[in-house]
Amino acid sequence: VDSSSVVALMADLSSQPVNTCSIGFHQPGYDESRFAAEVAERYGTNHHVQQVDADSLDLVEKLASIYDEPFADSSAIPTYRVCALARERVTVALSGDGGDELFAGYRRYRWFDDEEKVRRWVPSRIRSPLFGLLARLYPELAGGPKLLRAKATLRGIARDSDASYFNIVAVLNDDLRRRLFSSTMRRELQGYRAIDVIRGHMSHAPAEDHLGRVQYADLKTYLSGDILTKVDRASMANSLEVRVPLLDHALVEWAAGLPPGLKLKGREGKYLFKKALQPYLPRNLLYRQKMGFAVPLGTWFRGPLQHQVREALCGQTLAETGMFDMAAITQLLDQHVAGEQDHSAALWALVMFGTFLRDVHARPPSTAEERPQPVRA
After folding, report:
1. Model confidence, pTM
2. Looking at residue 368, what is its pLDDT?
């Protein structure tokens, strides 16, 4: 929706056909290329598509070097590919980033809103023990239909608002962190918890409603530290400049003042935004289920990349840090490969961290002789 809105308005303002680029996947559940093609045809753009497959994991070393820090968002793969594709034709591109944060487009906002309604009506002295017990009794059904995967929801309702949202948005929840960290690592953390970052932002959010609080936390963390960082590094590595019209400060300020019911209305996220776009985009695109710019890591890690990932995780790089319980990592991988649970996000985070340590952190510092010398006139 966000990228399509940018294309629609660009085409309306441009006297020449707009260049558009899209990434496709062979797995239907991840492939949005047909919707991009529909918008491209509607607005007569010069459209280009590139397929991303499992062999794109070869990018891992390059990504570690590009980001220069452990960066665990797997959508960096298609982002890098689409930036390279765009750079073949243009030097400046526009992206649709920011629309979900401004207008409550993420599905997690709906989940959080549902949980918050229960928290509002059930006192914590009853809610926490009751739903905590139900969560422990409910079976793990990670591979089953979504309607039956209620364990995470029950856990969320048992927690307070801040803890619930942290565990919705985090790559690694608190339970998984405890499992993966070694006793030495847990001791050296000295009580630090990643959740405190989210708590701090939510407590200082200039919003009275619960939706505004989590949107503010996302603006301060997820948008700036993940989404915009991902696009900035991937585009600059391809000598492409990406601008983000939906994050124009005037639009951000205006959207921040909207009542929550105009962003999330019932089960429909980005309600007002989609209404405004109805003259420009077809309803089947505006109101279909959100997919996100994700890669099918779960399938890849159980299939063509299984041995590659095992080598990366069970080798010496992570073990030598002393930070992790290697038996827990092996168990995580075994559970994922067996299809018992989907640990693809955690496994990817570990792969990227290991690659960063091996290829970037351990790289010897360059000497003055190795650095390019300035040219003097």
Report:
1. 0.87
2. 44
